[in-house]
């Protein structure tokens, strides 16, 4: 079992507490070490990238729209699982949206990311952070499971395992919410740019131009699926809701 680290209300600007790995800490996946050390595992990366302005630039100015569309699926008082840390202020906004009666469980496989998110979530005592792989998240069940820009960064077998894990953590009447890349329309002016970015930096992202998120689910028929695309199809929000017969 991973370590559950409830956040105490540490003052903002307090020195970052380090999560020391122990026998329960999951191993860092090889793809993460090989492909994304520069982006997520190096301390300098956090200092460079963890700014809303940088995230907004990476998302071509769509950051707030994308956050808002995810938050529109969430209501105060709910329990939510976020399956990986993200740069910027999405997690604090999610915790604020869930409110004092809600609960946010935030997981990430990288201890350095959990330490960083703990600092950002310090004002929210309802947020709980755990070093944990998204293929084996806490059991829940949750009202909302939110997978925000994780799938495009993991290999195909991980995509399938994460989608299945996410779906099994959704409680009766709950929803899984995936926000991620999607195949842009043929005429999209950024299509060749994104193709090049994926070729150079994001080798697992192009698969989301070829597959729906539903394609990765073993028991897709047990859910109803709704997809909205944004910004000429470059981004998607896909929501999976358990069918009534399975939640009765
Ligand atoms: C959510 S993704 C990318 C989000 C987006 N590019 C951003 O603005 O940060 C980045 C995070 O996913 C985490 N991650 C990658 N594979 C994971 C896995 N199997 N389980 C949990 N977290 C994972 C990384 O450690 C990293 O913190």
Q: How large, in whole angstroms, is the Cα Rg?
A: 17 Å
Q: In CATH, what is the homologous superfamily?
A: Vaccinia Virus protein VP39
Question: What is the name of the CATH class?
Answer: Alpha Beta
Gap from first CA to last CA: 29 Å
Number of helical segments with 4 or more residues = 10
User: What oligomerization state is this entry in?
Assistant: single chain
SSE string: EHHHHEHEHEEHEHHEEH
Q: Which class best fits the helix and strand makeup?
A: alpha/beta
Q: Average pLDDT, to the nearest integer?
A: 91
| Tally of discrete structural domains | 1
Identify every distinct bound molecule in the structure, by name, code or SMILES. S-adenosylmethionine
Give the number of DSSP strands: 8
Percentage beta strand: 15-25%
Uncertain segments of ≥5 residues (pLDDT<50)?
1-15
Overall geometry comes to: globular
Query: Numbering strands along the chain, what is their spatial order in the largest sheet?
Result: 1-4-3-2-5-6-8-7
CATH architecture name = 3-Layer(aba) Sandwich
State the share of residues found in helices, binned by percent: 25-40%
**Major sheet attributes:** 8 strands, mixed
Would you give the CATH topology? Rossmann fold
